[in-house]
Amino acid sequence: MSVQHDPVQRADFDQFMVPNYSPAAFIPVRGEGSRVWDQTGRELLDFAGGIAVNVLGHAHPVLVKALTEQANALWHVSNVFTNEPALRLAKKLTDATFAERVFFCNSGAEANEAAFKLARRVAFDKFGEEKCEIIAAVNSFHGRTLFTVSVGGQPKYSDGFGPKIQGISHVPYNDLEALKAAVSDKTCAVVLEPIQGEGGVLPADLAYLQGARELCDKHNALLVFDEVQSGMGRSGSLFTYQHYGVTPDILSSAKSLGGGFPIGAMLTTTELAKHLAVGTHGTTYGGNPLACAVAEAVVDTINTPEVLEGVKTKHQQFKTALEKIGQQYAVFSEVRGLGLLIGCVLTDAWKGKAKVILDAAAQEGLMVLQAGPDVVRFAPSLVVTEAEINEGLARFERAVAKVTQA
């Protein structure tokens, strides 16, 4: 028997919600696979993926089954106790990566908060309080807590909240010489996204990540990879560090890890993990059975050669079609990214108009994203079909045609 709810409409957002978001004019109410339906029954194809979260689309039967079974068993016990789904998930993540230890939390910001606190604690314990400086990239994004937003290299998000956390500096992304000039023996961590997500879907150069690894080794600093957006198969490897062959000391994961259920994880080594001894860090909900049961099902489903190879094939399908659209309508100067995290960089004539294209796509029944005002971003489900890609990009082309001919 379904529960009867009071009717709601988009205007209720403006009446009851804090106005820090500006959501679309329609309200999605149901999803299946790569399709979503709104309150009026209109169908849209979802190439936004809840901002690179819905890695297996909507209502994937394997995830629904995992959640339902766990919901009927145990929801929450806190970290005064451990639980079976958390232990199974931790083992699977360590088996599949460089890591030997996992800390579970609820979001990417929390995973990064734990990563940055661990980096500072390690340096404090081993070298003293002077070694506390964190170097991150301009235009990076690491979350919205005060610490993570300070490490993120976008002042528009960090300004206006009082004094900043000290000891954080920013250097241009993919500029190894700038990084060399910034790193010193006071550096405790270099924090990088292997693919800058919010900064415009910009993959790192291999030599840049290799150079960052060498600099960290030379100066006893830790290399932290933020794989909140690039991880969990999105690049065609389980984590993007594996694509590059450059191993970090600490890695953060979230978004696709839970396929839509909130969960984050910080992965690291035994040697580093021991610096977060009992009582040094914690979270009430982190590692809860519901989230971990779903995430375990996500890992089992996507960490297969078939799915990961499929991501690379689908990347090519997207890239070829988007480059063609870009040339035909003179809107994109470049199509970049890895796997199913793709950014279309707008030409000078269309700079600042990513939102216009996003809105036009929604009118044609396609959900896409932007990565800043100058890049249209695609982050569809990893199991989106070839036919759905063709259909969605046909809708996208109609949207671009309308915008450019207006």
What do you see in this structure?
This protein has helices at 11-16, 49-52, 61-71, 84-96, 108-127, 146-151, 155-158, 176-182, 206-218, 240-244, 270-273, 289-302, 305-329, 354-363, 386-405, and strands at 28-32, 35-38, 43-46, 101-105, 133-137, 168-171, 187-192, 195-196, 202-203, 222-226, 250-253, 264-268, 332-338, 341-346, 366-367, 369-370, 375-378. The chain has 406 residues and is α/β, with parallel strands linked by helices. The protein has two domains: 11-59 and 305-405, Aspartate Aminotransferase, domain 1 (Alpha-Beta Complex), CATH 3.90.1150; 74-302, Type I PLP-dependent aspartate aminotransferase-like (Major domain) (Aspartate Aminotransferase, domain 2), CATH 3.40.640. The model has no long low-confidence stretch (mean pLDDT 97). Helix 3 runs antiparallel to helix 12, helix 4 runs parallel beside helix 12 and helix 13 runs parallel beside helix 15 (386-405). The strands form four sheets. Strands 4-12-11-10-7-5-6 form a seven-stranded mixed beta sheet, sandwiched between helices. Its EC number is 2.6.1.11. Keywords: Amino-acid biosynthesis, Aminotransferase, Arginine biosynthesis, Cytoplasm, Pyridoxal phosphate, Transferase. Its cofactor is pyridoxal 5'-phosphate. N(2)-acetyl-L-ornithine binds at residues 144, 283. This is Acetylornithine aminotransferase.
